[in-house]
Specification:
Blueprint (H helix, E strand, L loop, with lengths): L1 E14 L2 E14 L3 E6 L5 H8 L7 E10 L2 E2 L5 H10 L1 E4 L3 H4 L6 H12 L4 H14 L5 H6 L7 H13 L5 E5 L7 H18 L2 E6 L2 H4 L5 E6 L2 E7 H6 L4 H11 L2
Parallel strand pairs: 3-8, 3-9, 6-7, 7-8
Antiparallel strand pairs: 1-2, 1-4, 4-5, 9-10
Bound molecules: adenosine-5'-triphosphate and magnesium ion (MG).
The site of adenosine-5'-triphosphate has 14 residues, from helix 1.
Length: about 260
Amino acid sequence: MSLVRFSGLTVSVMEKGNEKLLLDGISLEISEFSIVSLVGGSGSGKTTAGLALLRLLPVGLTIKRGEITYKDENLLKASSKRIQQIRGKEISMVFQEPLYAFNPVFSIGSQINEVLELHTSYSKEKRKERIWELLDMVGIKDPKRVANNYPHQLSGGMRQRAMIAQAIATNPKLIIADEPTSNLDVTLQAKIMKLFVKLKEELKLSILLISHDLGVVENISDKVVVMYEGKIVEAGDTASVFNEPKAEYTQRLLEVSKFK
Ligand SMILES: Nc1ncnc2c1ncn2[C@@H]1O[C@H](COP(=O)(O)OP(=O)(O)OP(=O)(O)O)[C@@H](O)[C@H]1O
Ligand SMILES: [Mg+2]
């Protein structure tokens, strides 16, 4: 079943009196329980697509045409109250550098607690247990200690795991992960990718994985969508995109990832 669908989404910005298209009629589908990777070079529009889905486009960017549906609901027409409900509860986001996403003056536990307070009716005691459970699910060995830690006290990999714990706290149907491992070394990258697959299977969720690196997403994606300058140049099952890339741009990206 389809969870999210972009149809002809077109986003523009005015630059020195001229209109520039940042997304030029992109259409893609994210099925339930699947990992879809959005891949492309810097400035191709990947983050813009992710932000449009959460209706978080920066001021100045305009949606000119197209639709984004979530379970057949037109998100571009949804009320701001409904969007608030969807953000965080049904669709959550993981960023490249969790040090910026977390507030430095609160412990990891209290920041996850905040999400639970907002979106669940759990008691204080239940929330505490849930925080430990979440940290355990993302592979943090000592959840009770880490819950009391502040973001800067954790290593980059641990912080990214904690961010993912926060993102799954409300049992979302979709996680948008925007370059979630770009700041991590290769071994950690692979571990976090494995974690995404585990979470997809255990929690029956979907992931929109944004990356500039095809190599990183190969082993975990069900589908790959390749973007170039605001357009989708190729989309398909992971095996067919990797084995028989049609677009020249995809072939170039594959060459690059081979030499990493
Ligand atoms: N607030 C903004 N105002 C004007 N232009 C913007 C704004 N945000 C993004 N852009 C432009 O939109 C285009 C797409 O940017 P976007 O951040 O979506 O690319 P990306 O694929 O995520 O790149 P990266 O891999 O570097 O993160 C770029 O040309 C960028 O300069
Ligand atoms: Mg980006």
